[in-house]
Amino acid sequence: MKLLRSLLVLILLVGLWPTSFQGISYAGTTQETIQTSLYSQLKLIPQIKHIKRLKHSAHFSERYEIMVEQQLDRNDPAQGTFLQRVFIAHTGFDKPNVVITEGYGGNYAKSQNYVNELSKLTHGNQIFIEHRYFGQSMPDPLNWEHLNVENAATDHHNIITMLKKFYTNKWISTGISKGGQACILHRSMFPCDVDISVPYVAPINYALEDSRHPKFLRKVGSAASRKKIKEFQLTLLKRRDEIFPLFKDRIKQFHYNYRLPLEEIYDYVVLEYAFAFWQWGTPIENIPANDASPNVMMNHLLRISPIDYFSLEGIESIQAFFVQAAYQIGYYSYDISPFKKYLKIKSTHNYLMKLFLPENIRYTYDYEAMKRVKKFLDKKDEKMLFIYGEYDPWTASAVNFNGKKNMYKFVKPKGSHKARINNFEEQTREQIENILQNWISQ
Questions:
Q1: For a Cys staple, 38 with which of 22, 55, 90, 107, CB 3.0–4.6 Å?
Q2: Would you say residue 18 lies in a domain?
Q3: Considering 330, 355, 380, which residue would you say is the last residue of a domain?
Q4: In this structure, what are the phi and psi dihedrals at residue 154, rounded to the nearest 5 degrees?
Q5: H or E stretch including 172?
Q6: Are residues 376 and 420 in the same domain?
């Protein structure tokens, strides 16, 4: 009866609710006249198995953690179900809806202070979806067979469809890095689920060990910067006898374990350094001189290329990422040619299997998944705005398109994997915000 009264009020009091926030304005299609709370709406959805009320920031009026029942295999209900964690933060039933397709676990979204950049720009509702096989969204028993981009995109589709029953304004999907990749994959499979997509620093790799990234590292930044990075890596290898004992001591201190001998792990940590250096925007002046003490050399190396990255302990919480990389979404390769004389390893080929994958897993890389994405980007012209950093190695596998009316790509000059709308220069930031404003108001 309460729901019926609410619906009658909604029908009788249709109107416009103009809103503006930080440069983005829009006209909603209905006044916020639903008298029931978000909690009451969520209670009506049978797929939602648990609802927990959370504290919220001043930006929102309600916030919940919910667990949504999803099929393990979108094509076969007999394979069973799992519970997927979603955080919903509410500003109004008539507001735009920002859905975050996180690529990993979602613990950080539990903080009451977490507000996505686009949620701020649009003053919108915020729907944060933790990726399947991460965090609290783990199937039991764990069967890697059902971890694929098709099932993950269907997870997102189901949640958006479920919430559209009462969130009827514009939908904006977004995500960062692997989450941005998930955003693109979802849009390519379900283009009508959302009106706008804003993926950040999202790679679209076309191989298990994509060769575009080493090529990128040979050209990124200035010649002087690249030379200094390479010399630092070479010095770490040439001075192995001095530095490696300290490296071993540090590993022993933290009780890390690895699948390969520590001499080989040292090689991988050194090789990883250049990628990590550019990815996170390390200042070039932070690199120690080649005659710095072994402690100074090692401490800088591990600040940029941490020793836990290749450890069994470090892998544990993101094991699903490496499974996905090996199956469908690909990864990057290493160029060992400048260092081969000083390495203990002979080749980095198939390093995902050697270092990261569950020991009982066997895989064949599926090239078709990313080919379908490329075909979508080539053929379609959806409202999509891509953000990248110029110096971020993941930009080597950025999306590319020509002659599109609705697709935009913005690359932050000298930017890293931290490139966001709010750290572009003012003129470009205003341009991006105007595009989003126009799309939301259409």
A1: 90
A2: no
A3: 355
A4: -70, -35
A5: strand 171-176
A6: yes
Question: What's the token pair of residue 169?
Answer: 């304004």
Q: Which pLDDT tens digit goes with each residue over 40-67?
A: 999 999 999 999 999 999 999 999 999 9
Helix (H, G, I), strand (E, B) or coil at 387: strand
- Taking the CB of residue 354, how many other CB atoms lie within 10 A of it? 16
Domain identity same for 188 and 44:
yes
Q: How far apart are the first and last CA of the chain?
A: 35
**Domain identity same for 334 and 387:** no
Quote the DSSP letter at residue 111: S
Q: Which residues contact 432 (CB under 8 A, 6 or more apart)?
A: 385, 408, 410, 421, 424
CA atoms within 13 A on the CB side of 344: 16
385 CB neighbour count, 10 Å cutoff = 21
Kindly list the distances between the CA atom of residue 330 and the CA atoms of 102, 133, 283, 357, in Å, as whole numbers in the listed order: 18, 17, 29, 13
Six-digit token string for 180: 């941005």
Quick one: 190 and 315 in the same domain? no
Model pLDDT for residues 249-304, shown as the tens digit of each residue: 999 999 999 999 999 999 999 999 999 999 999 999 999 999 999 999 999 999 99
Question: What is the C-alpha to C-alpha distance for residues 409 and 196, in angstroms, rounded to an integer?
Answer: 14
Whole-structure pTM value:
0.91
Is the same domain home to 268 and 325? yes
Any idea what the CATH number is for the domain that residue 401 is in?
3.40.50.1820
Three-class DSSP category at 312: helix
What does the longest C-alpha to C-alpha distance in the chain come to?
80
Domain count, the chain: 2
CA angle 198, 367, 353 (to 5 degrees): 100
Give CA–CA dist 173/203, Å, rounded: 16
Query: Coil, helix or strand for 127?
Result: strand
Residue 6, both tokens:
């609410």
Cα(164)–Cα(170) distance, rounded to whole angstroms?
Answer: 10
344 with 288, same domain: the answer is yes
